Amino acid sequence: MTKIKYQTVTGMHDVFGREQLLYDKVEETAQKIADFYAFQRINTPILEDQDLFIRSVGESTDIVEKEMFTLKTKGKDLLVLRPEGTAPVFRAYLENGMQSLPQPVKLWYYGPFFRYERPQAGRYRQFWQIGFEMLGDASPVLDAQTILIAYNLLSELGFKKTIVNINSIGCEECRKDYRKALLSFLRGKKESICSDCKRRAEKNVLRVLDCKNPKCQQILSEAPQVLDYLCPDCKNHFKQVLEFLEEIPVPYKLNPFLVRGLDYYCRTVFEIGFEDSPEEEAIGSILGGGRYDFLGKSLKTDIVPSVGFSMGVERVIALMKLKDIDSKPKKKEGIFIVQVGDLAKRKALKMIQDFRTAKINVFEAISKNSMKLQLTKANKLAINTVLIIGQQEALNNTVIIKDMITGNQSTVKQENIVKEVKKRIK
Ligand code: AMP
Q1: pLDDT per residue over 247-272, tens digit each?
Q2: What residue ranges define each of the domains in the chain, with the CATH number in brackets?
Q3: What is the rounded distance in angstroms from the CA atom of residue 72 to the CA atom of residue 377?
Q4: Cα–Cα distance, 216 to 228 (Å, whole number)
Q5: Distances in Å between the alpha carbon of 159 and those of 153, 154, 349?
Q6: Which atom of ligand 1 is nearest to the CA of 115?
Q7: Residues enclosing ligand 1, CB less than 6 A?
Q8: Nearest atom within ligand 1 for CA of residue 316
Q9: Whose CA is nearest to atom 23 of ligand 1?
Q10: pTM score of the predicted model
Q11: pLDDT tens digits, one per residue of 211-236
């Protein structure tokens, strides 16, 4: 019989062991930040209506044009594996009547997202994102606070030298004039820009500014800047956001060509990265966000001014490894139970249950019989307190308690062991 080898699907990967510890660390850090700023966690379904993303992210974006995993159900509905988190959170906010709650409603999420991209370093077809969203409030102070939360999240994860790249892309009104100016600038450059840019210029000219082609970037450095076209309201909003950032202070750099790849953004857009980090250049941006006051309009539903950001967990973890940030496993707190023989196994199984009730972590290798092997495992886990139940102890109803640092050991009655361990752990 030939053996069939199954592998993960292209662009997707298993997460386990040391790698999973890093995912846990990122999640725990985000949870702490969320608790501090009073964000509630939200879990939306993995599948959503295709239309939700076409209308919100935008028809001419890479996500909608080429990257959605779409499936047709037996009932002939067109569903997609969610490619991003903002539109689903926005849908959930409206669908669950969160407009009637005190505003802004502050929600955060952590979960897998899917984009049919060409797999390469930092680019997967299933990747994890953490996102924070504040819905239902247009105040510029919230743009600044969103940026601060993102900045704090990266700082808590160990990235100390980050910089916020920021821009305002205005509202629909001011963008009309800017679009015209950009189009007329590009008209004279048609022969020199790449074929993607030619296509984007026709469909959604702002997306041209996103182009990573060095030749296009050179040409675009002379293009008109959106900041010169902002209407008085948008200008004032952006001025206030920058003033708030200066007050904190959070280091920022104006980037007049930052537009971000999704159509729903308006006014403030930002990305946080590092100055001169070749590693980051190789894997792509780690965190980005902005305001999306008119997402509701694109969905032909209520207009809800909102702001948020999302962070790519794989990219953050890749950088944590490269920069050697706290990737060592946490020291395990608790005890290790070593047992030898069937009677000892029975006693150990019961003892584990007693420690569970007492909320003390227990590590063990209960299916094994070799004392040496079990002690090696305890050593590897760097556990200081080891309990040993040999054949003799099992018969006497005793247990040896060993301090792995000093090597001292004593014998305790099994009925007193939880009390004794509690004393020592404290
Ligand atoms: P976006 O929704 O495109 O702004 O993406 C938000 C963040 O998700 C980015 O800054 C990346 O860190 C991460 N990200 C986006 N696409 C991918 C991908 N294909 N693989 C891994 N991470 C991604």
Answers
A1: 999 999 999 989 987 889 999 999 99
A2: 17-171+231-322 (3.30.930.10), 335-425 (3.40.50.800)
A3: 50
A4: 21
A5: 9, 5, 43
A6: 19
A7: 84, 115, 117, 122-124, 127, 129, 261, 285-288, 310, 312, 314-315
A8: 12
A9: 312
A10: 0.89
A11: 888 898 899 989 999 999 999 999 99
